[in-house]
Amino acid sequence: MNTLTGGCLCGAIRYTVTAKPWAVSHYHCADCRRATGAPFITWITLPVDGFAWVQGKLGVHHSTEGVTRGFCTDCGTSLDDAEAVTPDDHLWSGSALSWLHMADGLPRLKQGHWGVGYPHKPKEK
Ligand SMILES: [Zn+2]
User: Fold this and answer.
1) pTM of the model
2) What's the CA-to-centroid distance between 71 and ligand 1, angstroms?
3) For residues 42-66, b (16+ Cβ closer than 10 Å) or e, as one string?
4) Ligand 1 center from residue 93 Cα (angstroms)
5) How far, in Å, is the centroid of ligand 1 from the Cα of 111?
6) Would you write out the chain's pLDDT as a tens digit for each of its 125 residues?
7) Where exactly are the structural domains of the chain?
8) Fewest beta carbons within 10 Å, which of 17, 46, 79, 110?
9) Are 58 and 71 in contact (CB under 8 A)?
């Protein structure tokens, strides 16, 4: 996989991704919706050693037990080329908004990947 780059809208935060994502998922849970103000958010899950912050300092918010959300304290974050990855599935589909209808044919899981595994995570030896 080619290196992905990204950063926030104002340019203060920059990062690189060198690992192949384990999953690219649309999250429909209420916490993700509330944190972003969007009807769902697309997250990339990957090994931590394949990700690096290269510029800036994140603000952090501990939204729920075990979940820390990082963000630019001035704006937001995104990939430079959002077409570089494609979604694998929808998570927390039972929490999806009733008016949101996506005919993308992707699998819909009632929960996260915990317990069912990630679509592209290599098997542990
Ligand atoms: Zn920013």
Assistant:
1) 0.84
2) 8
3) bbbbbeeebeeeeebebeeeeeeee
4) 30
5) 31
6) 689 999 999 999 999 999 999 999 999 999 889 888 899 999 999 999 999 999 999 999 898 888 888 889 999 778 899 999 999 999 999 999 999 999 999 999 999 998 888 999 988 77
7) 4-95
8) 110
9) yes
